[in-house]
Amino acid sequence: MRLWSVHPRHFDRQALTACWREALLAQAVIVAPGRGYSRHPQLQRFREAADPLTAIGAYLHGIADEADARGYRFAREKITSGADAPRLEVTDGQLDYEWGHLLTKLQARSPAVWEHWREVARPEPHPLFTVVPGPIAVWERP
Q1: What is the pLDDT of residue 60?
Q2: Which Pfam family, an example, fits this chain (predicted)?
């Protein structure tokens, strides 16, 4: 499971659709703990939110907004909470780590998308996140 901190505009089609599916799975795990990937480390930041369900809902809305911008139809009715949530923090170290990881995937899988983004030093974060100074997240598995 990869719940990217990177803004979905930087994704290729495969990353966008995979992130949507994985975030829906994360939502299901938050709604009914003990299912599937309930101990997945990337769920930690959502569980630590004041309202985990609203946080994952806002994350899903950010993915769906990008899908809409591309003319895709993601089933928003699968999102169980609204689009508004207090922003979560992501460290610049985590964002940089994920950016390198995504660029490697894009270079192999979607060279045209990689070419478009490869000169970007640090991408925008997903709309749910605010960037703060810091290292890679403790839950990350580098």
Answers
A1: 97
A2: Pyr_excise
